[in-house]
Design goal:
With 336 residues, the protein is mainly alpha-helical. Helix content is 71%, strand content 0%. Helix 10 (235-243) crosses helix 13. It has one domain (6-317): Farnesyl Diphosphate Synthase. The chain contains 14 helices and no strands.
Length: 336
């Protein structure tokens, strides 16, 4: 019998996740139509590109053989990331352009509801056993705290002091914390013991690092170049700085500052980031994070009907997208 893939599961449960969110909005009461409309528009316009909302379902299914009871956690995942992604764009100065029919102020208020209030309503719903509601609330608070700590460190990143270890620490917080939050929440809902909850949290954190690296690669290949425009210290940049000779290191650091305003600097820096030595180190480290995630799954074990989908999700998130043939992405028109 062929294994269920995470894409198969996503196709099956997408309507159920939407229903969980709709029910949470309805629990706000009939006087909250404006909130419901704003959140619905934000979710419609900011639909998540990748179906990672299945992650807590797969964790719960690995523990119990049934994904369904973790649907509320998947809804929290969708709401959390919709809110966080909009806030990230707002910090980058792109909020007004990415809120659909909502004004920037309306979208900002919708993110407060979607990322904070609705997850609490979901946790307090009859779908969640009262015995675990306190623990789940703590997880949501911890997920936001870790992610914001990581994002603040990211904003203050300094290419002059960047190392692979320092970037890993930032990634573990800003992306690892929210993934660790939902994997731990799913494990708690499943009734797993404390040791297994912590192992699932660690798996989520490592997965979050992998996903951030995957997202960084997409940023280059799609030509968005948001990381260069924002002066973000990425893992690839840390790899390039580590393997570059001294004169090239200084050139990379100079270009990091200039790339905020110069198309030519972005093009030159992209070329240096895609040098074979930097990509070799990058590829090796991606493999290391991937192997770490697989070791955690081996240690955890569980229902073999669902573990292959988790392993596949790890492998898909660990792909090396950049290479010698990678597109040297152009910066957006109008930048000088």
């Amino acid at each position: 019998m062929s294994s269920l893939t995470y894409l198969d599961l996503h196709r099956q449960v997408s309507p159920d996740i939407e229903a969980e969110i709709t029910a949470a909005l309805e629990r706000l009461g009939p006087a909250s139509d404006a909130i419901g409309n704003a959140v619905t528009e934000l979710l419609r316009h900011r639909e998540l590109k990748h179906p990672l909302s299945v992650l807590p379902l797969l964790v719960h299914a690995a523990e119990t053989g049934a994904p369904g009871p973790a649907l509320p956690v998947s809804a929290v995942h969708v709401l959390w990331w919709t809110s966080a992604c909009y806030l990230d764009d707002l910090a980058d100065g792109a909020g007004a352009a990415v809120a659909g029919a909502l004004s920037e102020d309306e979208a900002l208020l919708a993110t407060v509801i979607s990322g904070h209030i609705l997850p609490l309503h979901i946790i307090r719903s009859p779908r969640i056993p009262e015995s675990v509601r306190g623990a789940l609330t703590t997880e949501v608070a911890g997920g936001w705290t870790g992610a914001i700590e990581g994002q603040l460190s990211d904003i203050r990143g300094d290419s002059g002091r960047a190392t692979r270890d320092s970037v890993t620490t930032v990634y573990r917080r800003k992306s690892g914390s929210p993934f660790g939050m939902v994997t731990a929440m799913a494990a708690i809902v499943s009734g797993a013991n404390t040791g297994r909850v912590e192992l699932w949290r660690e798996f989520g954190c490592v997965f979050g690092i992998l996903w951030q690296i995957f997202n960084d690669q997409e940023d280059i290949l799609t030509g968005r170049n948001e990381d260069l425009l924002n002066g973000t210290v990425t893992y690839l940049l840390a790899c390039a700085l580590e393997v570059a000779p001294p004169r090239s290191k200084e050139r990379i650091r100079t270009l990091c500052g200039a790339s905020r305003h110069s198309h030519g600097a972005r093009a030159e820096l992209t070329g240096l980031l895609l040098e074979p030595a930097a990509l070799h180190r990058y590829r090796e480290d991606i493999s290391g994070f991937r192997d770490g995630a697989h070791r955690l799954l081996d240690d955890l074990g569980g229902d073999e009907r669902y573990l292959p989908a988790l392993r596949h999700l790890v492998d898909q998130s660990s792909r090396m997208l950049l290479g010698a043939e990678a597109v040297r992405a152009e910066a957006a028109p109008g930048q000088s």
